[in-house]
Amino acid sequence: MNKNNNIPGYNPYFDDGSNDRYPSEYETMKTYVNTSGFRDSYEATGMPNNIIYPEEVALQRQSSTKKLLDKEIARGDSMKKLTRGDSEKKLQTLNKFDPTNAYNSSVTVKKPVTSYEKFQAWMINEGSRKIFTVSWIVIHALIFSMAFLNYFFSDNLNGPRQTFGMTYVFARSAAVVLHFDAAVILFPVCRNLVSIVRQTPLNNVISFDENIEFHKAIGWSLLFFTIVHTVSHWVNFYRLAVAKNGGVLMWLQLNFATGPGLTGYVMLISLFIMVATATQKARRAHFNRFWYLHHLFIPFFGAWAFHGAFCMIQPDREPKCSDIASFWKYWIASGTIYIGERVLREIRARQTTYISKVVMHPSKVVEIQIKKNNITTKAGQYIFLCCPEVSIWQWHPFTLTSTPEEDYISVHIRVVGDFTEALAKKLGCNFEEEAKLRKKNRDRIKSQYDGIDISSDNPELQKVLPRVMVDGPFGSASEDVFKFEVAMLVGAGIGVTPFASILKSIWYRVTYPKKSTKLRKVYFFWICRDYDSFEWFQSLLLAIEEQDIQQFIEIHTYLTGRLRHSEVGNIHVNDDGNVKDTITGLRSPTQFGRPNWDKIFSNMREQHPASDVGVFFCGPKPLGKQIHTKCNLWSQGFEDGTRFYFGKENF
After folding, report:
1. Locate the FAD-binding FR-type domain: which residues (predicted)?
2. Average pLDDT, the chain
3. What is the pLDDT of residue 454?
4. Which of 107, 310, 461, 598 could pair covalently with 259 via S-S, beta carbons 3.0-4.6 A apart?
5. DSSP strand pairing (396-399 vs 382-386)
């Protein structure tokens, strides 16, 4: 059982079991062969082995016969200058591809040669992010250094320096850096602000899609300089107690019986609790604990507002207390915007919102369709959802699976934790009786993959559906898919959810073109571990593949987990001569084992020369890092090269 199941706030659409180890290619194929028991029997009977291993369709195309009209291709017009393009012709005949040998095949990477080409390739995915990170560290170092020099050489602080020594300089310098961090720490969690700013050219310099990571980095900086500040003052109090012969009693009084001491410990304890419960392991184990205790930022900032108001350590000359309690000057900008966002959430929550349909899907997935006036969405965005009948305080993020072209917004929620189970119960979902409901509604259900509309089937339930509140929508990396000519969408397991909205929106734009789109070709890769993971998403994929006559969207599914003996037997019986895949029902066959990303990127670069390819990923971190690395490896910095831009969902 997944350990995340006990997390009330756990959002299944942003997790794909990243804590579970991906099996190696060798282990995957060995397990598949040994558990099936078929490969040896095939060799003994002379039957072909490719029944177990379907043909590889992950872009293993025959060598391209396309010729360029000109030797040098302008990047923006590359697709138009090809004599034939993937977006304007049917799928080419694919090479037969043995997965057992794919992982040992070598692919040569054409690397940048000159320093300029290397710099251009580095700037595609890494440059701006690393430059910003280094700049942020340099800013901290400059602030600390300037403050240190000021407190060390100031002729108005000779008395404090003689009394406390260098620890006084360190304490005050760290305090200046802390004020700077406090001034910006709330900006990354102002989601409306981030959604607006990420649409500006500034997003090319600062990766606003990593706003939560930036928030965490500032939090660690706060913790570090808080420790420096606190330890320095412990030493200062010790020296003051020694100078006045006060002993341990005076040291304790300075710590716990003074205004700076009391407010300092309120801040210190609050910060330690927030950090301890916000680590990834602790947050996933007890999300509610993290959510509620993270609101200790209120007493943290409240105590900080008075921490420097007591004028405990005074300068040499008058006015001695003219610049005390200045924290509000630093906090006012981000604090005002953050409070404004919380007020905006309350306003949005009170707007008329109601559930129009509830659909039970296989694999314990429930679809909620919501009607709300005056809401404008984009493909790939997400919302925060609250159900007051479950908890008025809990707001959880869910990716939108509806498109802007539809007259409702929808989310698909996998029932895996306390919050989702309570919500499903309020919605009238009973997955234990799913088989009975399917039998009752067999006239309306076209296939095993379709959901059951329990709301329209039960008029009484429609009257008692719970009230929900919606905040958002908010922007994400997947919004940028329409900025590229070619897009690679990679979803691992339930991480495929953000791409439901994108795939439907792409289909709408191609089928009913109201405005031109730069996008010419989409490759969709779905990587799952088990047989049942495909079920709930099948109806959408089947509909897209059925109506995508021009093969605008290519769908590739990979099964990386171990198959049961009965499943292998079912594939053997039904796959012989079948046009559609036995597991998914799609035209493209399911691949067994992990994708060979080097071959995929190599073929992608061959098929789309001189193009900017957007690679969008949602899933476990290890796989995301691997694909990120491949984007950097296969990107070309020269003028007519292919560049892969990596984008990852961060919530």
Report:
1. 342-480
2. 76
3. 58
4. 310
5. antiparallel
Which residue type does 271 have?
Answer: L
Nearest to 633 by CA among 643, 618, 620, 648: 643
Nearest to 20 by CA among 536, 505, 492, 617: 492
Q: Which residue has the higher pLDDT, 429 or 469?
A: 469
pTM of the model: 0.74
pLDDT of residue 4: 44
* C-alpha 160 chain-centroid distance: 49
Amino acid at 63: S
Q: Which residues contact 464 (CB under 8 A, 6 or more apart)?
A: none
CB 270 within 8 Å of CB 148: no
Q: Answer whether 366's CB lies under 8 Å from 437's CB.
A: no
620 or 293: which leads in pLDDT: 293
At 385, give phi and psi (nearest 5°). Answer: -120, 135
* Residue 541 CB neighbour total at 10 angstroms: 23
What secondary structure, in 3-state letters, does 391-460 show?
CCCCCEEEEECCCCCCCCEEEEEECCCHHHHHHHHHCCCCHHHHHHHHHHCCCCCCCCCCCEEHHHHCHH
Q: How far apart are the C-alpha atoms of 340 and 453, rounded to whole Å?
A: 39
Residues 6+ apart with CB under 8 A from 15: 4, 494, 495, 620
Q: Could you tell me the end-to-end alpha-carbon distance of the chain, in angstroms, rounded to an integer?
A: 24
What is d(CA 351, CA 360) in angstroms, rounded to the nearest whole number?
26
Residues sharing a CB contact under 8 Å with residue 355, sequence separation 6 or more, in sequence order: 368, 369, 370, 371, 427, 455, 465, 466, 468
Q: For 244-326, where are the alpha helices, taking DSSP H only?
A: 247-256, 259-278, 280-285, 287-293, 297-307
For residue 560, what pLDDT band results from cuts at 50, 70 and 90? confident
Rounded to whole angstroms, how far apart are CA atoms 35 and 29?
10
Residue 15 clears pLDDT 60, i.e. is over it: no
Provide φ and ψ at 69, rounded to 5°. -65, -35
